[in-house]
Amino acid sequence: MKIGILGTGMVGNALGTKLVQIGHEVTMGSRSANNETARKWASSLGERARSATFRDAAAFGEVVISCTGGMHSMDALESVGADPIRGKILIDVSNPLQQDKDGSVILGFCNTESLGERIQRALPQTRVVKALNTVNCDIMIEPSRVPGDHNLFICGNDPAAKKQVTECLSDWFGWKIDNIIDLGDITAARGTEMMMPLWMRLFQGVIGHPHFNWQIVRGQ
Amino acid sequence: MKIGILGTGMVGNALGTKLVQIGHEVTMGSRSANNETARKWASSLGERARSATFRDAAAFGEVVISCTGGMHSMDALESVGADPIRGKILIDVSNPLQQDKDGSVILGFCNTESLGERIQRALPQTRVVKALNTVNCDIMIEPSRVPGDHNLFICGNDPAAKKQVTECLSDWFGWKIDNIIDLGDITAARGTEMMMPLWMRLFQGVIGHPHFNWQIVRGQ
User: Fold this and answer.
1) B59: exposed, middle or buried (C-beta count within 10 Å: 0-12, 13-18, 19+)?
2) ipTM of the shown complex
3) Helix axis angle, B159-173 relative to B10-21, nearest 10°?
4) Partners of residue B150 in chain A, C-beta under 8 Å
């Protein structure tokens, strides 16, 4: 499959590398076609990996993954425009994190809106699926790093797109389909993005590393 | 132990009833001393249960539990004043939920603040511990309704108070001490209160009942 990755950070790198390794063609997009990080990444992985602008990477992908820092995702997608991703699935894995005045990590917006919703509203003809944003990128691509059952949350307005993304997450990374919880429409992105403050506290203050996940345990 | 419960809703009723049943003396507080719900509750449980004003219930308790609707907690505590709970442990179990214009449930405030922080700031000489706010009240008092291991989160500025509350949750309700995660100071209440949008989505849209909980699964 041809996949466009928007963003050259830790998450884009982890997802892009894994997808090339399992045989897909991946173009990593960034603000300029000459981005050093993206070029180094592509040249280290051989001919199935390429670097390009956000717009060209999005045009390249049959599926596009938005991995930019969440406070920059709208700018990156604005530089893509609607046409290169019309009708395509866009997987949004980012959280709109920023530093508060006191240095603590907060969300740039939340509660009555979310990044997933902003993207879907800006690109009404793109099939936005929010997924993977509740785990560290090492867990995204290798869920077995966390033992036993644990959950991913997925949401979006297009049921067929969610089904396809669920199958991709299983095929690409080994997520058990039964562990992927469909929360409904894209407004559910509020809930998954708002898990970040607790996630950060667990990461920084309790567990000390990012290799953990949530499991929903059901009673009667 | 003498325990003051602030609030006559579902949560105050569940906690108060359980605490009376296991032998504690409980006074349920509300805005007026003649609150019908509180009087009925007390008369149904015998002499260890009483009803009173918020202020008298707080004065009665060696430990006080704030169970009012989260958007009303500050008003209730203002009517208590600082003196009746000076030096005492106040367990805050509420979330500042409210309905948005479109009918969806949102938080009245979040992200850069929390109800736990507001209470601690208003009552600097009270030892505020945020706990139990991430589970339904049936699970609060009977964690074994959800099978296996699953977690509670606790936070507050006073380590000794958190230790005592942890022991109370174990003694009163049967929570395993190893499953109670200390997140640090009271600002961590932001994170646990912000789990509510996902909790609501799981409750209303996915699971269909409130008897579930989170487990943090650790990898390497």
Assistant:
1) buried
2) 0.97
3) 70
4) 217
